[in-house]
Each structure stands twice: as C-alpha cells, then as structure tokens.
Specification:
single chain; mainly alpha
C-alpha cells in the first residue's frame, strides 16, 4: 500500500510541476524573453524537479522565485531594461545597479479611477508607468 501511495504522490507532484512549467513557459512567451534565457529557465526547472523529486522547495510562491538569484536577475533585468532606459533618473546608473533594482520591481495593474498614492503619504516605493497614463491631482 505504501508503494502505491508513493507512486500516486509522485504522479501528483509531476502534474503540479508540469502545470508550473507550462505557466512559466507562457510567462516567458508573453514577455518575449530571449530564447537563451527561456532555455536556461526551462533547464533549471527540470534540474530542480529531478533533484528535489518534485517536492516543493522554499521560495516558490511566485513563478520565477525558486530559481538561482543570477537567473532571477537575468529575467528581471530583461523585463525592465527597456523601461529603465526611458527614465532620466536611471540614465547614468551602471548595469549592476539596474539589475539589482530589477529584482525589486513589481507589476501592478490599476483601473481607471484607482487611487495609487495620496499626497502626504509616507512611502518607500517608486512608481513607473510602463503602459497607460495616470493623473495627478491635489
């Protein structure tokens, strides 16, 4: 009975892995990541699955966050490089700084009329508009 249970568990873990891999591939395709980065990500996911026998590893809450930090950085920088190049504040920053900064970025989608920040709020965030526009009012 325990052999059957172990086999079922491994099957379930493989199905979950394949679902995650499919989501990662979709993410990479949707974000037009280079073929080289895509191949590295898929290779890392395959190695990780084989080494961990499908067991969930810490830090895997988001699609890319259970990968080695250097690969996370490559993916994040590929995603943000074009946006950073459009921001005058980042014009003279070195690539190493921008690569680290890219790891800290988050995408948010706001609907028309959403309040993003209110004057006087204390915040440690910086917002960059990648697509669309916003209105500032006082």
């Amino acid at each position: 009975m325990s052999s059957l249970h172990a086999s079922n568990t491994l099957h379930i873990l493989k199905v979950k892995y394949l679902e995650k891999l499919s989501a990662v591939k979709t993410f990479m395709k949707d974000h037009n990541l280079s073929a080289e980065i895509q191949a590295r990500v898929i290779n890392e996911k395959n190695i990780s699955f084989k080494e961990n026998e499908g067991v969930h590893t810490p830090g895997g809450q988001r699609l890319m966050y259970d990968m080695p930090i250097a690969l996370q950085e490559d993916v994040a920088y590929f995603e943000t490089k074009e946006l950073f190049q459009k921001v005058p504040l980042f014009k003279d920053c070195d690539e190493a700084f921008l690569r680290r900064l890219a790891l800290k970025t988050h995408d948010y989608i706001y609907s028309p009329g959403d309040k993003i920040i209110t004057q006087g709020d204390k915040s440690r965030e910086m917002y960059l508009i990648q697509k669309g526009r916003c209105e500032a009012s006082m």
